User: Which sequence fits this backbone?
């Protein structure tokens, strides 16, 4: 059986490696991300240089932990079409113009034919309000859009798929 290809965006890695918190929403996201990670053998996991650049920022101990975890995933190659698709996503208003890294994540996932992009960024990447526009732009580029999901949504999707 072919495993689904999953692009893992920076926020997922950050929640996976973050120090435990008692703040309820963050705690729930940490737990759900760990539950998702425990099923990682069911997927082929990928990242981009954009992910590496983002997770390398901040506290050195924390960033080293994030980078160590990212080392378990396959690094996607930069493709010249990524910049073009990123530009289209931004100029069409699918993402705010200042969110180039977020558009780049989507572009990497689309260009490389990922089945899923997993993120906790629901403001710009897994944003229901802009999902149709993002998908239309990717379709217009001649590609199949990846499903843009949170780890929680991906867990639920896989549970329904396996029933």
Assistant:
């Amino acid at each position: 059986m072919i495993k689904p290809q999953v692009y893992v965006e920076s926020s997922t890695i950050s929640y996976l490696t973050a120090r435990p918190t008692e703040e309820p929403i963050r705690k729930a996201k940490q737990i759900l991300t760990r539950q998702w990670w425990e099923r990682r053998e069911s997927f082929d996991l990928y990242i981009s240089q954009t992910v590496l650049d983002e997770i390398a920022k901040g506290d050195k101990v924390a960033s080293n932990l994030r980078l160590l975890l990212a080392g378990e995933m396959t690094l996607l190659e930069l493709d010249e079409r990524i910049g073009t698709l990123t530009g289209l996503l931004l100029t069409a208003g699918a993402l705010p113009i200042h969110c180039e890294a977020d558009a780049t994540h989507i572009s990497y996932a689309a260009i490389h034919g990922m089945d899923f992009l997993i993120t906790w960024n629901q403001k710009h990447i897994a944003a229901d309000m802009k999902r149709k526009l993002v998908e239309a732009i990717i379709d217009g580029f001649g590609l199949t859009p990846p499903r843009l999901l949170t780890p929680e949504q991906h867990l639920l999707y896989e549970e329904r798929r396996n029933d």
Residues 36 and 151 are 6 Å apart (CA to CA). The chain has one domain: 5-162. Residues 5-162 form a domain with the Rossmann fold fold (CATH 3.40.50.1010).
